[in-house]
Amino acid sequence: MTEGTGERGTVLVVEDEDHLAELYTEYLADEYDVRTAYGGVEAMEMLASDLDVVLLDRRMPIVSGNEVLAEIEERGLQCRVAMVTAVDPDFDIIDMGCDDYVVKPVTRDRLTDVVERLMKLSEYNDRMRDLTSKKLKRNVLQVEKTESELDESDTFQRLQTEIAEMEETIQGIADDLGTDYVAKEQ
Which of 114-120's residues contact partners 24+ apart within 8 Å by CB, and which partners? Predict the structure, then answer.
């Protein structure tokens, strides 16, 4: 999802209990483009590169949530995944490739908070990647150009301004996420 463009994030709800699948879809439909898979088999068919978040039931017949998660990883899909399940967490979740683990029952507020946080986490990572790229370019120029060349370059000054603005934006996202972002020189 691109901030400020008016695009709605795309969420795939994967739940084999029809009433829960429809309830979760209803919870999120006002804010997001929601697709609903009524089980793991259907979820495998609906996996796509445009997904931002997948809410995934862990225990489903035929194809489990763990198998769907493995397929997401195998395809290299860049979506965020939250297990939304009645399975109490155990230490196995440490190595599980999901971003969040939510134990049912789930309220509307809890579900929307999870999706919102995962969307912000994606935005944070995208912006950090862009910031790192700009800082690396700046560092090369600082090594290869003289101080006076840098001072006289409008392009370099614009780069410095962009870096400062990006750091401020990233700090705001980090604050929203409750993480400790430190703008380090790279």
Answer: 114/55, 114/82, 114/84, 115/9, 115/11, 115/28, 115/31, 115/32, 115/53, 115/55, 115/82, 117/177, 118/52, 118/53, 118/80, 118/82, 119/1, 119/9, 119/52, 119/53, 119/80, 120/173, 120/176, 120/177
Q: How far is the C-alpha of 92 from the C-alpha of 98, rounded, in Å?
A: 11
Residues 95 and 152 in one domain: no
Domain count, the chain: 2
**Domain, as residue range, for 138:** 123-177
Residue 21 lies in a domain: yes
Tokens 């489990």 belong to which residue?
64
**How large a percentage of the chain has pLDDT more than 90?**
56
Q: What is the pLDDT of residues 51-88, one digit of tens each?
A: 999 999 988 889 888 899 999 999 989 899 999 988 77
